[in-house]
Amino acid sequence: MASSLVRPSRDRWIGGVCSGLARRFGISSNTMRLIFVVSCLLPGPQFLIYIVLWILMPSEG
């Protein structure tokens, strides 16, 4: 069972968004970070979505 969508207090680099998403979907944090970096090479609002999630996702603890 996947955990809730929160930014963890540990294993966070910038805002913890990738770590929180990785935990939610049951994959490695580094895998999620790699997916995000690669997705930034494609056209689209990925960076804006990251900022919005950083603001909206509650911090753990």
Please, could you describe this protein's structure?
InterPro entries: Phageshock_PspC_N, PspC. It comes from Kribbella kalugense. Pfam families: PspC. The protein is an all-alpha fold. It has a domain at 17-56. It has three helices and no strands. It has helices at residues 17-25, 29-39, 46-56. α1 (17-25) crosses α2 (29-39). The radius of gyration is 11 Å and the shape is globular. The two termini are 20 Å apart. The model has no long low-confidence stretch (mean pLDDT 85).
Topology, pairings included?
Blueprint: H1 17-25, H2 29-39, H3 46-56
Question: Briefly, what is this?
Answer:
Helix content is 51%, strand content 0%. It has helices at residues 17-25, 29-39, 46-56.
Strand content of the residues, in percent? under 5%
User: What general outline do the C-alpha atoms trace?
Assistant: globular
Number of helices: 3
The tally of strands reads: 0
Using only CA atoms, what is the Rg? 11 Å
Could you state the order of secondary-structure elements as H and E?
HHH
N→C terminal distance: 20 Å
Which spans of ≥5 residues are poorly predicted at pLDDT below 50? none
Mean pLDDT: 85
Category by helix and strand content = mainly alpha
Helix content: 40-55%
Main beta-sheet strand count, sense and barrel state:
none
